[in-house]
Amino acid sequence: MTVTDSSVSTTRSEHGSTRYDSADLQQKAKDHLWMHFARQSAMEKEGVPIIVRGDGHHIWDVNGKRYIDGLAGLFVVNAGHGRKRLAEAAARQAEELAFFPIWSYAHPSAIELADRLADYAPGDLNHVFFSTGGGEAVETAFKLAKYYWKLKGQPTKHKVISRSIAYHGTPQGALAITGIPAMKAMFEPITPGGFRVPNTNYYRAEEMGFVWNGEGDRRFEFGQWAANRIEEMILFEGPETVAAVFLEPVQNSGGCFPPPEGYFQRVREICDKYDVLLVADEVITGFGRIGNMFASTTYDFVPDMITCAKGLTSGYSPAGATIISEKLYEPFRHGDTAFYHGYTFGGHPVSAAVALENLDIFEEEGLNAHVRENSPVFRATLERLLDLPIVGDVRGDGYFFGIELVKDKATKETFDDDESERLLRGFLSKALFDAGLYCRADDRGDPVVQLAPPLTIGPSEFDEIEGILRSVLTEAWTRL
Ligand SMILES: Cc1ncc(COP(=O)(O)O)c(C=O)c1O
User: Fold this and answer.
1) How confident is the model over 389-413, as pLDDT tens digits?
2) CATH says 49-78+367-478 is which class?
3) Is the bond preceding residue 189 a cis peptide, omega within 30 degrees?
4) What CATH topology corresponds to 85-365?
5) Whose CA is nearest to atom 8 of ligand 1?
6) What is the average pLDDT score of the chain?
7) How far is Cα 274 from Cα 244, in angstroms, rounded to an integer?
């Protein structure tokens, strides 16, 4: 609740943001706020960073300190913070029609946004099913895949394949697709039918079982090998039982695994061969993150469904969507077939209006082209960090990079659980934040620092980010 008590300060600072009473908020947070994916004990002990304002690629905390937002909130604020026109678009829509469902009725913003997304989506992905976030978009795709095969007379096709360490959301269905055992163990039994194959972690290709025979391009061959593991899994389980494969164009969890050239082409071929649907989970990679509205376009493949959220509104209002091909839509065109699935707030008028305005900003400012032009400079700037003993790998694409930290560069030896705990939780996250960079130190796979800033930044900000990382990672090494 915003502080309104006259005993605490609510004056305007020179940045125009309301000044809050930090101690009061900390106490209320401790007493009542259950954080997501976080240890409550840390908040109880040390309090929580409270962010009060954003502008461009900067955020400010409750004490007035400024930070670079190196993660666009949570891969979300692609157009940057403080865009007044997005707030105004929300206000305009709320005044005219704050809410109406798309359950047998419709409203102009949802219709216009569906039309717009169909235009941007590759191939014949022309039908848009709205939700309120990424996990729901994945859940929708999972349910639709199962239903589609039942309608096509193949009711045993219900299993889904995804990749090791991939994150696809928290609803129980999406969790069945998520490939991070430690995040699932406490909720077992989870929706059955999820099967895992290797991801495209090229840095650790051999550890995953890839053997290069010295012929052809090593990275290309690795991509073919990884794709062929999907075929192997389909055959292990029986094609008549497999409904869909869920893949992020660039896998986030584990630290930014881009696809080797040819990977998605081979996956598409396999899916077509065995009548398995290909779902591109673009919750992170959509809306400019990889330099196009959809990364499926960047990597030149046409999935059967795209799931998206986050950057769709740049976070100014929550929204998610599942974009569906003509083939999948076809059985629903006729008769009394309906998809008995939906969300009260799916296609919310305010979120849809904000998304449309956000996409206008993308067009007017050429954000996708900006990312394509500057991505190589971002990469080269981060690669300078490879001279540090703790930096094993820099990888990613677009404005989406992971920096893998290792104990021994030559052997690629990683940290044990204890060291990871001390390094990532005990030191790095806080030290980077204290040094003015909000980003993510993640150990769902091997330890990585992840960067996904607003798409508006350029070379001088890349240098600034590199400078902060360099000093903090240098210190981290001395603490090992
Ligand atoms: C690839 C992917 N899919 C799904 C999700 C779940 O999205 P949400 O948190 O909006 O439910 C995420 C969230 O980060 C994601 O990265």
Assistant:
1) 999 999 999 999 999 999 999 999 9
2) alpha beta
3) yes
4) Aspartate Aminotransferase; domain 2 (3.40.640)
5) 134
6) 94
7) 10
Q: Which residues contact residue 151 at a Cβ distance below 8 angstroms, ignoring those fewer than 6 apart?
A: 331, 337
**Residue 445 pLDDT:** 82
| Domain pair 49-78+367-478 / 85-365, same fold | no
Rounded to two decimals, the pTM is 0.96
Cα 26 to averaged position of ligand 1 atoms, centre (Å): 28
Q: Among 92, 59, 74, 57, which residue's Cα sits nearest to residue 356? A: 92
Nearest CA to ligand 1 atom 2: 168
Q: Identify the residues whose C-beta falls under 6 Å from ligand 1.
A: 133-135, 138, 167-169, 248, 252, 281, 283-284, 309
413, 419, 421, 427 alpha-carbon torsion, rounded to 10°: -100
Q: Of all atoms in ligand 1, which is nearest to the CA of residue 169?
A: 6
